[in-house]
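Sample pair:
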Amino acid sequence: VSEVPNPTLVSSACDVVATAYTSTKESHPYIKSVCDAAEKGVKSVTEATASCVQPVLAMLEPHVAAGSEFASKGLEKLGEKLPLLQKSVEQV
């Protein structure tokens, strides 16, 4: 999962979306209050889920590691075949 944002295009797109989100929140107070509430809700759900899922993740750790390695190799091959992924959103 940590490898997904590594291609420049993905990282650049995430930066563009994050900047737009932050700018929108700062420009519109009503949207800011809704976004803040949504962020708090997501954080609470994430924290609650993480504590429940932790034992399952520990049991599945070897399988997750193997899947992660496979996915990482796949992303490397994808980056080689699609050089577009190494460009920023502006360049694309």
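The chain is about 80% helix and 0% strand.
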